[in-house]
């Protein structure tokens, strides 16, 4: 079945160390053997990496730059200093410790769903610009909203370089935009896609709705799992997503038009009962379909 969706995802701050020291060198853009979908960005990646390494060597207050200290800071500095010689690992595995990536449960996906995620997922990375989930990358640490001397703000640096490639890739597709604002700032959107959807999550209690801040990464990861399993490419498809915490589409609160828009999902009292009713209805529909198939098969045997 043809897939016409794309999923835009942020990288994860937490990363799996290590990798395969014998993997092809993704930075050698002169080689046709690179395992790197967006290899046209390699020159800009080298420019950023070189500037980052010079900045690390010259800067004293790296705690503020990386936002960490002590052992975590030492690991961040060492990882960035060793980028060109580090072992490589698929991005989906490198970002595996991240909350969103854990919630995707990539290893538990059926083979076809895994392939759809690898082929249709696009990861925004502070250091690499754009990645496919199966691109091989070293360990590193650099936020998209960081400011590097000689480069400026990382998201603004990437905008003119990654936007043409991304806009071309998204042409005619339904796009699930799961990016936070800091990552979206790296993209100059020309609206080449068919539709683009963003999601907002709210919790309703005693008639009052409040935006959800804690647990959003887990929800986004679970949504990715659903999208690639069910080939979801529309708002209506989300009616079958049994989201953690019982979030359901609120069409009246959503802002939608022919080009997509913002989908509002709400967790409100009684969602457990409504979920059980939906599950019962689906089971009954599936039972009816199965009975019709068995009856048709019996007729063919006569």
Please characterize this protein's 3D structure.
The protein is an alpha/beta fold and 302 residues long. The protein has 2 domains: 7-184, no CATH class; 197-301, no CATH class. It contains 10 helices and 13 strands. It has helices at residues 42-58, 62-66, 70-81, 91-94, 99-104, 111-120, 154-170, 181-184, 216-230, 271-301; strands spanning 5-10, 89-90, 121-125, 129-131, 136-137, 147-148, 152-153, 174-177, 195-205, 208-211, 248-249, 255-257, 260-267. The strands form 3 sheets. Strands 1, 3, 4, 8, 9, 10, 11, 12 and 13 form a 9-stranded mixed beta sheet that branches. Strands 2-5 form a two-stranded antiparallel ribbon. Helix 8 links the parallel strand 8 (174-177) and strand 9. Helix 6 (111-120) packs across helix 9. The longest helix is centred in the last third of the chain and has 31 residues, at 271-301. The chain is globular and about 75 Å long. It starts with a strand and ends with a helix. The mean pLDDT is 92.
């Amino acid at each position: 079945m043809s897939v016409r969706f794309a999923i835009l995802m942020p990288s994860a701050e937490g990363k799996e160390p290590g990798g395969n020291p014998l993997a092809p060198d993704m930075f050698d853009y002169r080689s046709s053997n690179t395992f790197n979908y967006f290899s046209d960005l390699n020159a800009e990646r080298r420019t950023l990496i070189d500037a980052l390494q010079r900045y690390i060597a010259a800067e004293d207050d790296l705690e503020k730059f990386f936002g960490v200290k002590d052992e975590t800071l030492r690991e961040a500095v060492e990882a960035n200093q060793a980028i060109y010689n580090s072992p490589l690992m698929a991005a989906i595995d490198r970002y595996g410790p991240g909350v969103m990536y854990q919630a995707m449960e990539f290893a538990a996906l059926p083979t076809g769903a895994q392939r759809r995620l690898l082929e249709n997922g696009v990861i925004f990375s502070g250091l690499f610009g754009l990645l496919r989930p199966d691109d091989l990358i070293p360990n590193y640490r650099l936020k998209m909203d960081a400011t590097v001397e000689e480069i400026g703000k990382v998201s603004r640096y990437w905008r003119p370089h990654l936007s043409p490639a991304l806009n071309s890739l998204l042409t005619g597709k339904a796009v699930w935009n799961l990016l936070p604002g800091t990552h979206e700032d790296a993209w100059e959107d020309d609206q080449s896609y068919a539709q683009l959807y963003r999601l907002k999550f709210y919790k309703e209690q005693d008639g009052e709705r409040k935006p959800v801040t804690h647990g959003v990464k887990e929800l986004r990861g679970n949504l990715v799992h659903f999208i690639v399993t069910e080939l979801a490419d529309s708002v209506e498809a989300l009616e079958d997503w049994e989201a953690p915490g019982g979030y359901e589409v609120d069409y009246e609160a959503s802002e939608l038009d022919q080009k997509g828009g913002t989908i509002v999902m709400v967790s409100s009292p009684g969602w457990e009962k409504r979920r059980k009713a939906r599950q019962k209805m689906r089971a009954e529909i599936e039972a009816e379909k199965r009975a019709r198939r068995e009856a048709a098969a019996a007729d063919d045997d006569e």
